[in-house]
Amino acid sequence: MTPLKRCLILILLLGAALPVFGQSYLGFQDEFSGILQKARMSFGPFRIYPVIRIQNIGYDTNTQFGDNAIPDYTGTLASDINVYLPFRRSLMLTFRDTPEYSYYLRERDRRTFTNSYAFEAKYLLLSRFVVFGRYHRDSHWRRFSTELGWLTRDMARGYEFGLFYETARKTFLGLTGTWNKQSYEDVQTGDSVIPLAQTLNRIEKSGAFEFYYQIFNDGFFFTKLGVTDYRFEHAEAAGRDARSYEADAGIRFPLLGIIRGTLSLGYKKFVPRAAGTQSFSGIVGNTSLDIRLGRFSVRLGYDRNTVFSYFTDDTYLQNGYSGSISFYLSRILRLECAVNYSAMDYPRPFIVVDGLGETRSVRRLDQQLSIAPSLVLRVFRQTGVGLTYGSARWISTLPGIERSRDSLSIFLATQF
Closest Cα to residue 51, out of 413, 368, 416? Predict the structure, then answer.
């Protein structure tokens, strides 16, 4: 058995449990052809691919996932508008716009409109070299961290540049660089303010080397080596400044087929700049697989990474598992159930005071579990209307954190 085959077998055995970061590069000609096939709407030379998303139209017993449950009727309406301008199979210009409106019947101050957009240019030079640049400005109203139950606005603005060399046999290697500013909006809770901006606003700079090797039809073995620098915006958070080094490897399965997604593993070394802040070395990343077997469809996911904490100057380690199974009762009716589990492990103990005024040290481990059975009815081609019940629980070894939320909602499924 060759060393390459041994490496691939090792990845297949470990990849379902061990993850990696983004592995999103597509060959220029494959991406160009995919745009022509997917974006069938046209306006002059422009190709347009719009998607409407309707989510969470229903009732939620705890919209903020907090200690004091705030029930409300909610709904989210969004659209993904992708506009492409392909030119002579050597130039691709892309514009993406994602407007989104979140509605709350009673909590009117939470009614929010956000919009995200991005521009990208990709050019094929001398039939082998691909140069690309991208600008994005994203704005979301969401629960951006499993550590925080509050809904708030988070914003990201940044650039990405890259140079890739592509061979005739679909082997790709290249260099990429990114600059990103991550910002958060403070949360108002009664008479107090939670200063997310002062604590978490930061600039991230990264560079990486990427390599892709085609091992079967539209399937790739990949590896990535990268470094990221984190600099926090406010002087009060300067102790959080850090740098991380990452090495990834894995297999990306075809975009179409019985198995789709990414099977991968990776290693990360997180080094804080401030003395006394907790460092991290170990397996990190994310894996996602979609398997279709007859009337059954199975989705599996695993996410493991360090996350900047709001409550401490350290990062915490997050392990997330997700899975869902779908059964097609008929050509127009699908029954499914999704389960998500997340564990947040803090490196340092917390000091708590009990009812007698005595202090003790507690190792904090938070756990969140959600279960969501759904019934989806196909209404047009690959579009369906679904009804789902969601139940989520949050417990912690830290006293006073035991929360729950339940919801019943209608959603629009864009893939049946």
Answer: 413
**pLDDT score recorded for residue 327:** 96
DSSP string, 115-142: EEEEEEEEEEETTTEEEEEEEEEEEEEE
DSSP, collapsed to helix, strand or coil, labels residue 3 as helix
Nearest to 287 by CA among 317, 257, 251: 251
Tell me the backbone φ, ψ of residue 385, rounded to 5 degrees.
-110, 130
With beta carbons less than 8 A apart as the criterion, state whether 212 and 25 touch: yes
User: Token pair for residue 112?
Assistant: 């929010």
DSSP state of 90: T
pTM (2 d.p.): 0.86
Average pLDDT over residues 296-311: 94
Q: Cα angle at 371 between 407 and 112, to 5 degrees?
A: 40
> If pLDDT is split at 50, 70 and 90, which confidence band does 255 have?
low
- The answer to whether 401 and 393 are in contact (CB under 8 A) is no
Closest CA to 345 of 278, 267, 247, 390: 278
